[in-house]
Amino acid sequence: MVLLRSLWRRVFGSSIDSLDLAQIVKLAADHPTRRNQDAFVRKLLVSNVGVRIAGVNRQYSPGECIVVGPDDKIMLSVATGPDGTQALLVIPNLPVVAATMPEAPFGEMTGVEAIKVASKLGVALVVQDPLDPSKAYAGVDRERVMALASQFP
User: Fold this and answer.
1) Please, which residues have CB within 8 angstroms of residue 145's CB and are 6 or more apart in sequence?
2) Looking at the 3D structure of the chain, how many domains does it have?
3) How many CB atoms lie under 10 A from the CB of residue 21?
4) Mean pLDDT for back-to-back runs of 10 residues, the chain (153 residues)
5) Which residues constitute the domain of residue 15?
6) The pLDDT of residue 54
7) What are the φ and ψ backbone dihedral angles of 42, each rounded to 5 degrees?
8) 46: which residues sit within 8 A by CB, 6+ positions away?
9) Nearest alpha carbon to residue 105 among 146, 59, 147
10) Phi, psi at residue 106, to the nearest 5°?
């Protein structure tokens, strides 16, 4: 473990916890260890994430901030995996993705809010950068989503 940490610092010049969420998603996908999964969850809980939304009931300009009120109805992206597992899809680097895809409406929320939404929907949570050519992703299974959501009333 010390050797891996030393090699990591030589290659990337930093510790895992200093990486941004998109980098940790890639790391957790490429090297799915418990340590990397825990680092991913820690970073998710202190990050902002994006979510593609549909059903916005008014015109908007690309880049415009739309505040969703309690009476507004929007649809979020929930995907179904090959095993039937459903997951809320969120994006780790919203400003970059939104600038690249200005025609698509995105919302922003904290990682904690994303966990709470996934919990209310009763689904897992998947973080994936749609611009990453490898399509790497990291996720939090439904049971862990529920456990984490219970820590943030």
Assistant:
1) 115, 118, 119, 123, 124, 125
2) 1
3) 22
4) 53 68 93 92 94 70 61 78 91 85 81 93 93 91 96 87
5) 2-150
6) 73
7) -60, -45
8) 111
9) 59
10) -125, 150
Which three-class secondary structure state does DSSP give residue 96? helix
SS3 114: helix
Distance, in Å, from the CA atom of 24 to the CA atom of 18, rounded to the nearest integer, reads 9
Question: What is residue 58's predicted lDDT score, i.e. its pLDDT?
Answer: 60
Question: Residue 46 burial (CB < 10 Å; 0-12/13-18/19+)?
Answer: exposed
Enter the tokens of residue 124. 């897992």
pTM for this entry: 0.80
Q: Supply the pLDDT for residue 74.
A: 72
- Exposure on the CB side of residue 13, measured as CA atoms within 13 A: 0
Give the pair of three-digit tokens for residue 72.
């507004």
Decide: 144 and 137 in contact? Cβ < 8 Å. no
Locate 32 and state its tokens: 């799915």
